[in-house]
Write a structure and sequence with these properties.
Length: 343
């Protein structure tokens, strides 16, 4: 393995972009080389990073500054366009969730990556949480037997403190919808654990966001898993004041499991035949967005994976095909909205 540090640039210096920048800076095998954002540097709170600053991705890519990887942490609606630009420049790309807002754009990214022989890394950091690692191993061991039913509940608070007038949040073209921005991590976990879905049915509602967003705030979706068993996803951002829970209940032939807490970070029930649950390491706290908490702060694992892959030591933990499948599943769910939304 080479001793050379992997050079990163980050485009998008909001909450998540700054988190990426910080974990890159803390990784001894990585080096932060540039930050990119359309906002003036002095308004971004990035004074701690003594690296070149560019006001556009185009300006950066046209500069003589050479990096191995560009992390795209901009609003969702820009992910596909910017990932394509990075790949055109023959650089690897890390794309924050979601990879794109349409399956067709995700396919274009994958095709371009193959064409230029570069990697695309998805950011689905909840896979690294101890309960997620544990349940993946338990399912693959077969100790739960056949899976009969999976229920996922995601009940969060997102109100006017989050959907501010000057934010991209809530805008259809830049946000994409509640499932893309708030809950795609949990759809990724579902797909990672149980595979693809079929026979999708859904109901959607806009309870208290009509003046804040361009889309639904709540939904109830049912489906069958291609690999067997049935599932459901209930979600809402209508919860008053603060997040309530993100949970997953699994009913299997030989046992039942429930992972709960606000961020699917606590094993609440483990009742499995002839099985003693091990003690898990504590889960990292949720990302802090001022009045809000989001998914687990595991971005350092993402950067470690990028470094290890590029140095030839491992495989990609969330590859582009998996990122595309999450987009496709959300797109298929949202295809039901036109005929079933309640206002």
């Amino acid at each position: 393995m080479s001793d050379r540090k992997i050079a990163f640039a980050v485009v998008g210096c909001g909450h998540i972009g700054k988190r990426h920048a910080e974990v890159i800076r803390r990784n001894e095998e990585a080096q932060l080389m540039a930050l990119i954002d359309i906002k003036p540097k002095e308004k971004l709170g990035i004074e701690a990073y003594d690296v070149p600053f560019f006001s556009s991705l185009t300006d950066f890519l046209e500069s003589d500054l050479d990096v191995d990887v560009v992390t795209v942490a901009t609003p969702n609606g820009y992910h596909a366009e910017q990932a394509m630009a990075v790949l055109e420049a023959r650089k690897h790309v890390v794309v924050e969730k979601p990879m794109s807002l349409t399956k067709s754009d995700a396919e274009k990214i994958i095709f371009k990556a193959l064409q230029v022989n570069k990697h695309v890394f998805g950011v689905m950091q909840n896979r690294y949480s101890p309960p997620s690692v544990w349940i993946k191993e338990l399912l693959e061991s077969g100790k739960l037997g056949k899976i009969y039913m999976v229920q996922i509940n995601c009940y969060w608070n997102r109100d006017e403190r989050y959907y501010t007038a000057d934010s991209w949040h809530g805008k259809q073209d830049l946000d994409g919808g509640t499932l893309f921005t708030q809950f795609s991590h949990f759809i990724d976990i579902m797909y990672w654990l149980f595979g693809d879905i079929k026979n999708i049915q859904g109901r959607f509602a806009d309870n208290n966001h009509a003046d804040l967003t361009d889309f639904e705030d709540s939904g109830m979706v049912s489906f069958d898993f291609v690999n067997g068993g049935m599932g459901s996803l209930s979600y809402s951002t209508s919860v008053w004041e603060k997040n309530l829970e993100s949970s997953m209940t699994i009913i299997g032939e030989l046992g039942s499991v429930k992972i709960g807490g606000q961020y699917m970070d606590t094993v609440e029930v483990c009742h499995v035949k002839d099985y003693v649950m091990p003690t898990l390491a504590p889960t990292n706290p949720g990302n802090d967005y001022g009045a809000y908490k989001g998914s687990a702060s595991n971005h350092h694992y993402v950067v470690e994976n990028v470094v290890n892959v590029l140095k030839g030591g491992t495989s990609i933990s969330t590859n582009a095909l998996e990122g595309m499948k999450v987009v496709e599943i959300i797109e298929r769910i949202y295809a039901l909205k036109a005929s079933s939304i309640v206002v």
